[in-house]
Amino acid sequence: MKTAISVENLAKAYGPLRAVDGVSFEVYEHEIFGIVGPNGAGKTTTVECLEGLRLPSAGSIRVLGLDPTVEGYKLRQLIGIQLQEGKFPDKIKAKEALELFASFYPHSLPAGLLLEQVGLQDKANAYYDNLSGGQKQRLAIALALVHDPQLVFFDELTTGLDPQARRAMWELVASIRQAGKTVILVTHFMEEAERLCDRVAIIDQGKIVALDTPANLIRRLEGGLRVSFTVDDPGIAARLEKISGCRLSLSNGQITSQCTDYRVVGEVIRVLGENGCDFRDFTVSKATLDDVFLAITGKEMRE
Amino acid sequence: MNLLRQFINLTSAELRLFGREPIALFFTFIFPVFMLFVIMEVFVPAEAPKEVVINQVMPSLMVLIISSTAIFGVPMSIVSYRQIKFLKRLRGSPVTPLAILGGFGLANFIVTLLGIALLAIVAVLVYSAVLAGSLMAFLGGFVLAFLSLAAIFLFIPGVARSERAAIAISQIIFFPVMFFSGVFIPLDQLPDWIARYISAFIPVTHAVELLQGLWLGAPLADLTREMLILLGVLLLGVVIAARTFRWE
Question: Which residue of A has its CA nearest to B95?
């Protein structure tokens, strides 16, 4: 696997605040690499250093073989960018915006083709402020792809979108990778990272606290399986607690136990059966990246 | 070559956006012509010869157009483009700051030029205004006045953190400046102490004096002081803008 980005000990300080505090990672070609974490964790600062829009305080960065701090102009011809909360002038038409940005590059794709690719072919002559939130983000994607770059950065692409628009956006991002591009996806939305990313770096307080494929991160989690059910007599909890590899929590007759593997789930069912316990609403679910984040940082991810 | 293409495309995009802003169109094209009629019909004494007075009123209203671009148009667009991160997004493309700022500046210059051309046409056709000086010198004076005022008011986006703040600052500045710089009221009708201690320190006043002088055909030597002051203002504006300008 070829390396598209390598970052070593990247740091960015604003006065006493260390927004990014010694971050190192590599991104391979053709992968969707997720940078996830809560708001204010340092995700955007990190990618903006990679894009050459911010000057790091320390560390070294190579993006497509270039140093963004000194070869920013050259780098910007090779990468596509969508900024967090980035908007365009209200009265610019979708097609005009694409043609304007196309004129910045020596080679670019036709506006019609790009609009079709992101499903905005009917909106070519619509003003920016008349587009819906999802359509604005689609246009931002088209603008990031206008020069057919090898590497694209998406920062909080789906924040503020309704679930349907969000899902449609995921399909679009997946298709961009399918077309052979490398994608850096910044999000505070763990489900998005889990669905889309080949690997994710979890950032908290300016540091990478975990980096792996979502499946590996979840598998490594103690209690990666969550069993929950309702009982009439909570007394059964005392017996369940004796099972090794099973952590219990109890609220209003609802028992949730985190089990290390399926063998332990079997044990739970066996104990319930042997004691003739009546249980209902029995579900087994896999842990998510949210649980991984909680386990690593001791904090809940919040929307 | 690429730089030129970027520059032209940014200019034409900005011009198109301007054409879609009714308020900006009103202040550049309609309001100055309206003010011309109001001043000529209401404020000029009936016995005064209109074909003489017009040659003082029209150049000062041209400065009204330059000022509304310099105090409202340019700062407001910069603050708005910064707030929506459009400037930052442009910086994320291979565009040089020179093309971005140059294209933006040229678009505003063209719009202002069209505004003064319309005003001049109305003044010539309706009130028989006559250019007594040289056209080239007058256009040169217009360019100097535009650059100088556009530059000095670039401090507004430098200090305003939001669009709301920029609107407030521009409004606080605009109306007093228009009244005390000879744009709405001729300087010789203002109390002497205002003309001497306030008007003289407003850059807009010197733009009015310069354009009136050039229109009325005053010898360039008589206008050296105004030109030097405007050049100084231009330099000061560029220095302040370079220190306070922020892309985001």
Answer: A104
